[in-house]
């Protein structure tokens, strides 16, 4: 009261003026209280403008500091943190001034204070929400946090804060203890679980996803059941957003990542290798034993010259030792164009600088099908970038397909 000695005099003067107009004491109190509320609203609006201006001036001066501080202030400014802080200041001042009228309005004052407390609590929650969003935005500019699901963490924190605020308001307006709040909450828990089923599942799933490091922002994921095949652009409490390669966005419930299955290509990028697993089908009728003339002709193919010389010597020695009748090609040991072609592919990949030689390429002759005899190439490309990978893979199979004819082989093709 000593801080505001003029308030009591102003109230008395107002009472005298209103009494001159013939108003009763009860009506005078209501009119004075209405004027106080009106002045409070005007004070709030004016105080908010002044506070916003002062905070904006402070942030402008603070933004002249180093780069990280400027980025932080810019992120906070983007979510209007100064605006929400400015809302608090006049509410706090009104909370200090309104109790000075408790002598004149003992009955209405507790209700007004309760309303002010509710408004103050709402503004505090808005401010904390804006700070969390601003911090998430700022942390995403740092390499160490760029791929973390920060939105999920922020939403979990806000849920806890809303729960605490709800408990506070319950105690404030019902004059019951906090145990009563939890008792009421337990009574309606079944209804709440039904209403907030997705949110509860999302919270549990978000915690599991974060703890197990299953998905990060920027990961390439494939989830065929949801039609998702692209890069994760957002992870929040209830949903994960994936930007597909056709530039559409697929929204997946977070708990689906736990309950279902999906493919994450992150380990492929981290390893620096991308797998090639593709087949070329050879026409079976073109597979044959190689005559000495065929071998001599194929020795001009540089990648297998040494191999053919060594194998030819080894085979001739073995056939002579075992007195094999070579009037028929099927007798004894022989080279086939199919086997030499597989060796050529293996040597070609071994000399290809785009192929990772630490994971040795494998050339497999698969089980024959109605279309022909497949040769599967199993290798790893050093470049994981999609366009480069596809280019390298296409170049390898272009070469292999064109080279087949030099071994008297034909690639199978269906004709109508």
UniProtKB/TrEMBL annotation:
Q: Where is the Mechanosensitive ion channel MscS domain?
A: 198-266
This entry carries the following GO cellular component terms, namely: plasma membrane
The entry's protein name is Mechanosensitive ion channel
Determine if DNA-binding is one of this entry's keywords: no
Q: Which InterPro entries match?
A: LSM_dom_sf, MscS_beta-dom_sf, MscS_channel_2nd, YbdG
Compartments (UniProt record): Membrane
Taking the first listed entry, what is the main subcellular location of this protein, grouped into a coarse class?
membrane
Q: Which keywords accompany this UniProt record?
A: Membrane, Transmembrane, Transmembrane helix
Alphabetical list of Pfam families matching this protein? MS_channel_2nd (PF00924)
**An example Gene Ontology molecular-function term:** mechanosensitive monoatomic ion channel activity
